[in-house]
Design goal:
Helix content is about 40%, strand content about 20%. The protein is an alpha/beta fold and about 325 residues long. Helix 1 packs across helix 7, helix 1 packs antiparallel against helix 12 and helix 5 packs across helix 12. The longest helix has 21 residues. The N terminus is likely disordered.
């Protein structure tokens, strides 16, 4: 857990907003074509989650693995966690596993940012992009016992004494759970250098802090906390998408007269240097998963927005995101 203060974003909020907009074993009998890659189940697939169990990456990876297995697209698939340094421990593992077609990693905007704020020698641009899977808005959340009943209540108290309210997020500086409250501060007129941000290594670590009233509020994806939201243990004050989040009884920030829209995304990458046959087989498997009824149900269950792109298109997206994050964090003095 780290306390992060000095973060000037006023000059770069527009740039950050632009950003907001594991896996792979291949069939040992694959011939490399997309049709043959999808013909037989891929065996021995390992999906790495680069943070703790219970967070957004973990939830997404396990949902994908279940659909892949249920649809008989893969067999003997393993999902495992390798947490540390905002996802960069896992990133280093993937980059160092050059040519390993049996390994890939579930990742997203948070790992992009952490690769710079943690001065990681490994970068996502070194990996083999497979597919972007989903995007989701952020949520501003408090415990059921919080004195803040509405986003207006929170903003009023926060503006009165920004440093006295601890703001938690399940990502490192530069990740989505950090960028959202920093942008929110700017949108409501708070000096971001006074924000008291507390970083947790994934949603699984953040949840106890929310429930235990260790934070004034938390910013993260609502999909990670739907069970607690539905039970009333966690109260959502607002969400950050263009539209209200289905299944969550809370207004958007824009509805609350706060001019901010922010979304996060998640995808899957493989190690560098995998064969073209392995890459085609993995992408074909993910395309088949994406077209299944099981994946559509997973999107609905977790309140995720379908944002599926693959291969070269995802590679261009990832390169653009990497550059935007690097530019913004350099201006913030964090890279």
């Amino acid at each position: 857990m780290r306390q992060i203060r000095a973060l000037r974003i006023a000059a770069v909020a527009a740039g950050i907003a632009l950003m907001a907009t594991g896996c792979g074993a291949t069939s040992k009998s694959s011939t490399g074509s997309e049709s043959s890659g999808a013909a037989k189940p891929i065996t021995g697939l390992q999906i790495m989650v680069p943070n703790t169990p219970g967070g957004g990456y973990d939830t997404t990876a396990r949902a994908a693995a279940k659909v892949l297995a249920d649809e008989k697209i893969t067999s003997n698939t393993e999902v495992f966690n390798l947490a540390g340094a905002g996802g960069t421990v896992g990133l280093a593992r993937v980059v160092n596993e050059k040519g390993n077609g049996d390994l890939a990693m579930l990742m997203g905007l948070g790992v992009v940012g952490a690769s710079y704020t943690n001065k990681s020698e490994s970068k996502l641009t070194q990996t083999t992009p497979l597919a972007r899977l989903i995007e989701e808005p952020g949520a501003i959340m408090v415990s059921k016992d919080s004195p803040y009943k509405t986003i207006d209540d929170l903003v009023k108290a926060w503006k009165a004494n920004p440093g006295s309210i601890a703001v938690g997020g399940g990502s490192s500086p530069g990740g989505p759970d950090h960028l959202l409250p920093m942008q929110l501060a700017g949108a409501v007129g708070i000096d971001a250098t006074k924000v008291n941000f507390v970083s947790y290594d994934g949603g699984g670590d953040l949840l106890p802090a929310i429930l235990g009233n260790k934070l004034g509020f938390a910013a993260s994806g609502a999909g990670e906390y739907l069970e607690q939201i539905k039970s009333g243990e966690v109260r959502v004050l607002a969400t950050s998408g263009e539209k209200r989040l289905e299944g969550v009884d809370a207004p958007t920030l824009k509805e609350s007269n706060i001019d901010l829209v922010f979304t996060n995304w998640r995808g899957i990458v493989a190690p560098p240097g995998i064969s073209e046959d392995d890459k085609k087989s993995l992408i074909a498997a993910l395309e088949k998963m994406h077209g299944s009824a099981g994946w559509k149900e997973a999107l609905k269950t977790h309140s995720w927005t379908d944002a599926f792109i693959t291969g070269d298109e995802f590679q261009k997206f990832l390169t653009d995101q990497d550059k935007r994050v690097a530019d913004v964090l350099t201006k913030l003095g964090l890279a």
